[in-house]
Q: What sequence folds into this?
């Protein structure tokens, strides 16, 4: 470890970014799903900065009970305040809290990184919203415990309606609009939904652009699946499509690589080759915003099946690409990203596949 | 024995068996393109991959009749015996394959008869016993040059043999890109760019005449690295020496990789090599390959910087630092006046090559650009890249004129079909001037028609409402004056660029594609793994043949009803296992 971290320092040399810390995270038995997500979130700079700011402002009160938010903020602050530039940290408190909080993550089984990210973001929102409520109306003792809906919605990892914009919302929230056009009266009904990430169906030898296009392609509702038109007051055939109304600042794209195969009665991993560019624009926005995003983190699932394997993450920090594999941190090259696109043919062995992609809006930066 | 051979080569092709779901023809308004045959390397030939996965690229070389009395061919007894053994080898594997391809090639092999034009001098168009003639590499011929792992392969385009007739093995790095100069008057006509950043030049004919697996009489260029211990000597050496350079570190290796090579048209002996570090080097094959030559440090990697070698004898003769990040491809205008580059930064740049001046540049919608090419009249450029689009640029207007939408993944190869002529204009207003093709990582080949009148001179066709363009494209926007020289334009907005739809979209391979080439008789497609498919053009006389009456209708030029495949998804997935032709 020590050797590895000093190697990283040597590799970066003079170019080591001022004030930046690169720390590996210890694995407590199949917690790589957690470590890889934490690294991606840590290097999501607007999120990290806002979380650290929150931590600094709320630490003084001191009486708050541990929760996922304080544990995460504490971990981030621990990393950023390290004297050394590189090394290894044990995210013990965070993992303990996670296991206490949610029984799914209690076992030593392999977990799904996307499920964990979903759970974590929704949990943070719950805590932040509760706190802001307490701050705003300290007299009212309504503990609006909202059902944490992580992993409930498969298509959209939706959050609640009319949310108080928390730091999680400011970073990750986007709005999708579901346009449904009744084929009888031609009335278009818009229904908005918020999202923290987009889960995309994937196809062999395709691109993220193409997956996004399919996500927004027009779908006809007919036969068993008709649409209830308010104007016609009856079930009608309709056309439906999903577009992005408000693009998020941080665009998280989840590739649906784990697919339930009915014949097999179990989930199967799709190692399809899905290419993703280092810069991306959303082609499926309502107003053709032409907003440009830049890739800054890739979560990679390593392994052939959904129930075992490993997670690693590739992260871009200060224009350098770094490779995080639990304790290990190594300097790498932009070109390494393309080794995680997947395999062009089903049985050709490459099982290290990009699973969750993190893009940041370039408009936000300038 | 033959069966064993062929199964090995099937495996090397990245699973031809798995290609059973692919159709062996596709329809266009002018008729059917049919899969004529396949070419690939045998997996067993691939020894070693010098770090990193390679992507196969394709060059078609038209070797002219050897001018009488040219003395570059070895005429020693030893090398002529070498020629005999090469012929013997070819005969052995060739027979086996030929038998098999007749078994499986139902009807397709018949099309070969139309392809004897180029191979005429060699007599290689499929007749039994013609292999004898193949060994005579003094004549003219058309060859396919392609790379895979550490080897460069040469196949005879007009022979049905799936296996290459020659493989050249490189012991220290992978060949990644290559170019052939059909106009070379003497000396070397084939250049090869390596993963190490080194470059080799050689004579194609000499390689064909030599039975060995090493390049013969190759010239080695190493950009004048100070520690380079190159042994390359011009034309004089016949044995190839290993170049051992202990500083072949992988990081160095990565950032100096050759990405594209090109001969400068109309400039005998001058060639250009682009690299993944944003540099391109200009070489003169008549100068030494191994000299001490240093160029000044690049101060700002984002700025264009052109430096010339101090010595007039050395190679490279110039270095152009073009952009930050990799230059992914380069292409010269047919007259050699202009050089186009595309790169990681998403920009197309067009330079006046002799004046060393940027004429104009423009950006992809997003992501890197991966390929570029010119129309044969030098008026238009095509680029393709990571935004899944094919961009059409006008040299006159110095800007983008259209976006082709139709690929479901990155566009890896673009080419104009300079052999194609529009169906006879019978006054219907059909005024398609350019045909081009593109291939992508979505395994598809797309063909497009570019109806220029409708973009460039919209007034001539006031209300034609072409189906190939999105309605409501602001034509006035495209009438404005030419931009000043040397300006890099930012990405245009989606709504500002007229869109093209493909004429045909066809899934041609199992693996992602890396390139395409048009020849007089066919379209050649190559996938990243090194399988080449040759799609023969619709037969003009198809109607007169008794072969397949169901094709008659398709053979007619149905010019007005364009086969526009708006949903490629549907075509891609709708291929059924239909009378699969087994190529072995």
A:
């Amino acid at each position: 470890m020590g050797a590895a971290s000093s190697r990283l320092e040597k590799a970066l040399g003079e170019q080591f970014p001022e004030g930046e810390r690169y720390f590996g995270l210890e694995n407590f038995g199949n917690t790589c799903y957690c470590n890889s997500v934490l690294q991606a979130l840590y290097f999501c700079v607007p999120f990290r900065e806002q979380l650290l700011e929150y931590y600094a402002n709320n630490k003084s009160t001191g009486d708050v009970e541990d929760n996922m938010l304080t544990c995460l903020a504490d971990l981030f602050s621990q990393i950023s305040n390290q004297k050394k530039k590189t090394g290894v940290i044990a995210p013990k408190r965070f993992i303990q809290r996670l296991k206490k909080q949610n029984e799914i993550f209690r076992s030593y089984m392999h977990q799904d990184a996307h499920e964990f990210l979903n759970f974590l973001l929704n949990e943070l929102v719950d805590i932040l919203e509760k706190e802001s409520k307490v701050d705003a109306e300290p007299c009212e003792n309504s503990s609006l415990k909202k059902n944490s809906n992580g992993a409930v919605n498969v298509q959209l990892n939706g959050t609640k309606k009319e949310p108080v914009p928390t730091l999680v919302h400011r970073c990750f929230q986007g709005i999708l609009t579901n346009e449904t056009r009744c084929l009888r009266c031609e009335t278009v009904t818009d229904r908005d939904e918020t999202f923290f990430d987009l889960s995309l169906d994937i196809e062999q030898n395709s691109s993220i652009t193409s997956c996004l296009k399919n996500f927004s392609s027009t779908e006809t509702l007919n036969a068993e699946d008709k649409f209830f038109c308010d104007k016609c007051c009856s079930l009608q055939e309709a056309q439906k499509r999903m577009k992005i109304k408000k693009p998020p600042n941080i665009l998280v794209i989840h590739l649906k690589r784990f697919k339930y195969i009915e014949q097999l009665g179990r989930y199967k991993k799709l190692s399809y080759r899905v290419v993703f560019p280092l810069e991306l624009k959303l082609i499926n926005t309502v107003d053709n915003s032409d907003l440009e995003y830049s890739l800054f983190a890739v979560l990679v699932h390593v392994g052939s099946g959904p129930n075992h394997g490993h997670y690693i993450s590739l992260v871009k920090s200060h224009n350098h690409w770094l490779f995080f594999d639990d304790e290990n941190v190594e300097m790498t090259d932009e070109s390494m990203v393309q080794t995680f696109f997947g395999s062009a043919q089903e049985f050709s062995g490459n099982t290290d596949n990009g699973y969750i992609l993190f893009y940041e809006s370039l408009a936000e930066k300038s | 024995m033959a069966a064993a051979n062929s199964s090995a080569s099937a495996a090397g092709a990245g699973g031809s068996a798995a290609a059973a779901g692919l159709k062996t023809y596709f329809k266009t308004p002018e008729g059917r393109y049919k899969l004529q045959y396949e070419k690939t390397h045998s997996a067993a030939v691939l020894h070693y991959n010098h770090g990193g996965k390679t992507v196969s690229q394709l060059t078609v070389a038209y070797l002219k009749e050897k001018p009488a009395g040219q003395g570059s061919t070895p005429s020693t007894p030893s090398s002529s015996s070498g020629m005999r053994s090469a012929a013997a080898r070819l005969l052995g594997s060739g027979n086996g394959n030929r038998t098999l391809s007749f078994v499986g090639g139902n009807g397709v092999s018949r099309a070969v008869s139309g392809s004897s034009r180029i191979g005429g001098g060699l007599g290689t168009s499929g007749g039994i016993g013609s292999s004898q003639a193949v060994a005579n590499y003094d004549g003219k011929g058309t060859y396919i040059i392609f790379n895979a792992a550490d080897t460069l392969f040469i196949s005879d385009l007009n022979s049905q043999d799936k296996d290459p007739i020659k493989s050249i093995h490189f012991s220290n790095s992978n060949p990644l890109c290559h170019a052939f100069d059909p106009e070379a008057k003497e000396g070397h006509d084939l250049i090869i760019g390596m993963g190490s950043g080194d470059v080799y030049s050689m004579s194609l004919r000499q390689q064909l005449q030599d039975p060995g697996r090493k390049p013969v009489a190759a010239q080695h260029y190493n950009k004048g690295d100070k520690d380079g211990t190159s042994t390359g000597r011009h034309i004089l050496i016949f044995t190839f020496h290993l170049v051992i350079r202990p500083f072949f570190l992988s990081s160095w290796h990565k950032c100096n990789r050759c990405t594209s090579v090109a001969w400068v048209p109309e400039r005998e002996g001058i060639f250009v090599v682009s690299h993944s570090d944003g540099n391109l080097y200009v070489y003169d094959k008549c100068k030494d390959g191994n000299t001490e030559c240093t160029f000044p440090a690049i101060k700002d990697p984002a700025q264009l910087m052109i430096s010339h070698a101090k010595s007039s004898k050395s190679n490279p003769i110039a270095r152009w630092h073009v952009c930050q990040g990799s230059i992914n491809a380069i292409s010269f205008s047919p007259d050699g006046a202009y050089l186009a580059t595309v790169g990681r930064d998403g920009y197309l740049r067009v330079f006046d090559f002799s004046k060393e001046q940027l004429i104009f540049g423009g950006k992809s919608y997003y992501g890197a650009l991966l390929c570029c090419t010119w129309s044969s009249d030098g008026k238009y450029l095509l680029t393709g890249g990571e935004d899944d689009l094919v961009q059409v640029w006008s040299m006159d207007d110095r800007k983008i004129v259209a976006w082709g939408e139709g690929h479901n993944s990155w566009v890896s190869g673009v080419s104009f079909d300079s052999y194609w002529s529009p169906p006879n204009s019978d006054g219907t207003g059909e005024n398609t001037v350019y045909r081009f093709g593109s291939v992508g990582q979505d395994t598809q080949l797309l063909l497009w028609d570019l109806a220029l009148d409708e973009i460039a001179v919209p007034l001539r066709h006031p209300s034609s409402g072409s189906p190939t363009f999105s309605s409501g494209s602001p034509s006035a926007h495209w009438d404005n004056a030419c931009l000043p020289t040397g300006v890099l334009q930012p990405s245009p907005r989606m709504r500002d660029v007229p869109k093209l739809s493909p004429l045909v979209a066809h899934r041609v391979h199992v693996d992602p594609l890396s390139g395409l080439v048009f020849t007089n008789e066919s379209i050649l497609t190559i996938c990243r793994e090194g399988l080449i498919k040759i799609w023969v053009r619709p037969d003009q006389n198809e109607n007169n043949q008794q072969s397949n009456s169901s094709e008659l209708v398709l053979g007619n030029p149905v010019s007005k009803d364009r086969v526009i495949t708006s949903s490629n998804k549907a075509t891609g997935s709708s291929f059924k296992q239909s009378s699969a032709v087994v190529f072995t």
Observations:
- Chain B is about 15% helix and 30% strand.
